[in-house]
Amino acid sequence: MQREQLEYAVARYGTPLYIFDLDMLKRQADRLKEALGEAAGLCYAMKANPFLTKEMAGQTDRIEVCSMGEFEICRRLEIPPEKLFISGVIKKKEDIYNILNTYGDKCRYTVESVKQLHYFLEWSDAHMKMLRLYPRLTNGSQFGMDEDTMRSVFGIVNMSPYLEIEGIHYFSGTQKRHLRQFRQELEMLDRLLLKMRDEWKVRITHLEYGPGTAVPYFRGKEAQTYTDEGLEALREAIRSMQWKGNVTIELGRAFAAECGYYLTEIKDVKKNGDTHYCIVDGGNHHLNYDGQIKGMYQPGIQLIPGEQTGQKKPWTICGTLCTMNDVLCSNAELSNVRTGKVLVFERTGAYSAMEGMALFLSHALPAVVSYSKNAGWTVLREHQPTYQWNMPDDDLNKQIYKVI
């Protein structure tokens, strides 16, 4: 995004502010599609940034939905139910029934446990509709099921006329930087899928695989898996599998990170001892880089308005929170730092807007806007106060009192 566009956004919408560049989002989606080619379809994990869900539904084959809140977003955005991949470690019976009663057999559903399987079994028997299930294989964490449990799930499904195991789901973590991790996981999955075919006598036609591709947020922290060469290596690892079926690659951060900018105004500057501080109107309740520890790594930062000229010196950038942990970046080399200028943090399109301590100190939520060449600027959310969520709801109490 051009500096002039960033400066315009500050003047029009104020700070703190998130900007999502939808043209850049499309370029990244096109890059991923081109790199993987026909070897795999693509699924967008909307938890990375639900504001991008509608755009990504047009760019990918599936949208991963991990909560009832995310499902409601998709329903209101009128995302085609055939694109929804209903996931999540917890699926309450009433939530599963809500989704099933809304869209029935049009969605695909992961199965995290035998208990979840029984919910699908009960609904499908009662409604006599075939459901497409994806048992989730654990990576040794709380997610999914081990191999023995999955085999028992297959046995239960075989006794039902209305359940079909279309595929399996596997995701083992995020920010993987080395290609050997992809290769090792795909080799393991290949062996398991062949075992299911030859020993369990189960036909699996789909694999939903979340490779956890890393995004290089910081200078000097590159990732093999994010490069074009790395994505091509992932494609070749898929093609080399002996099991032959349909593979869908599930990504969130890799799609969304580059399109985002976080803008925050410098409100105060000071020097304590040998350290130069600038205090901004945002903070780490808004900004989250995976792997950042008390601001020790250097993300991409711009200072606007104007060009940076003159001698640079190290600045520690801190936010508005009353905690010494609110350090966005230490030793950022900047020049012409003064109040009224705005810092632009790059690659904040994934998770930053979702993962921060949004309610701490009752600060307002930042505004959110998007930009594309065709549509121009669109306000996705105004600056939003949060104090009302940190106090008793008087109106609710009055209603309860009336009922009593």
Give the topology, please:
Elements: H1 3-13, E1 17-21, H2 22-36, E2 41-45, H3 53-59, E3 62-65, H4 68-76, E4 84-86, H5 93-103, E5 108-111, H6 114-127, E6 131-137, H7 147-158, E7 163-165, E8 167-171, H8 179-198, E9 206-210, H9 228-239, E10 246-251, H10 253-256, E11 260-272, E12 275-280, E13 301-304, E14 313-318, E15 327-334, E16 342-346, H11 352-355, E17 367-372, E18 376-381, H12 394-403
Parallel strand pairs: 1-17, 2-3, 2-10, 3-4, 4-5, 5-6, 6-7, 6-8, 8-9, 9-10, 12-14
Antiparallel strand pairs: 1-11, 11-12, 11-16, 13-16, 14-15, 17-18
Helix pairs in contact: 2-9, 5-6, 8-9
Report on the structure:
There is one protein chain. The chain has 404 residues and is α/β, with parallel strands linked by helices. The chain has two domains: 236 residues, TIM Barrel (Alpha-Beta Barrel), CATH 3.20.20.10; 130 residues, Lyase, Ornithine Decarboxylase, Chain A, domain 1. The chain has twelve helices and 18 strands. The strands form two sheets. Strands 1, 11, 12, 13, 14, 15, 16, 17 and 18 form a nine-stranded mixed β-sheet that branches. Strands 2-3-4-5-6-8-9-10 form an eight-stranded parallel barrel, surrounded by four helices. Strand 11 and strand 12 form a beta hairpin. It is globular, with a radius of gyration of 24 Å. The mean pLDDT is 92.
